[in-house]
Write a structure and sequence with these properties.
Elements: E1 7-9, E2 26-28, E3 34-37, E4 40-43, E5 50-57, E6 66-71, E7 75-79, E8 82-85, H1 89-93, H2 106-115
Parallel strand pairs: 2-8
Antiparallel strand pairs: 1-4, 2-3, 4-5, 5-6, 7-8
């Protein structure tokens, strides 16, 4: 089953929020080592809310690197062209990766989010409004007074 919730965006289009226009920036690990250049963003099609950064780790010349999607929740734009990841490179290399970054399945997303100890964003329910209890108001007059 393919997830149609996410659009593959390879350019910093105006519909992305300004602080989420990160394509072309460089991703740094928690030790300030450059990991990769951000190639694309996976965002919700209707709202353009960014969910993942698309990067390729490793690889040289004719050796292909590991293509990953990194939850945007564990990253922070620090400076112009620099995005900080709060994980080490070694840990990121062990992260699961999707079969096709342009067509990520829900099962792949769950596996990736689980690896980073994050709850699926589609499962997050809005907080319910406070319910009224039947407890008497201490300021109101008591019956029979």
């Amino acid at each position: 089953m393919t997830s149609n919730r996410l659009a593959y965006i390879a350019e910093n289009i105006f519909k992305l929020r300004e602080h989420e226009r990160l394509i072309g920036h460089y991703l740094y690990d928690e030790q300030d080592e450059v990991l990769a250049r951000i190639e694309a963003i996976l965002a919700e099609p209707g709202t353009h809310l960014s969910r993942y950064l698309v990067v390729t780790l490793g690889g040289m010349l004719s050796v292909q690197g590991k293509k990953l999607i990194v939850p945007i929740e564990i990253c922070k734009a620090i400076d112009m062209g620099k995005v900080k990841l709060f994980w080490r490179k070694e840990s990121l290399m062990d992260a699961p990766n999707p079969h096709d970054v342009q067509s990520v399945t829900e099962a792949e997303e769950e596996l990736i989010l689980g690896y980073f100890d994050l709850e699926p964003y589609w499962a997050a329910e809005p907080t319910p409004p406070e319910e009224k209890t039947d407890a008497p108001d201490p300021k109101s007059p008591k019956p029979g007074n």
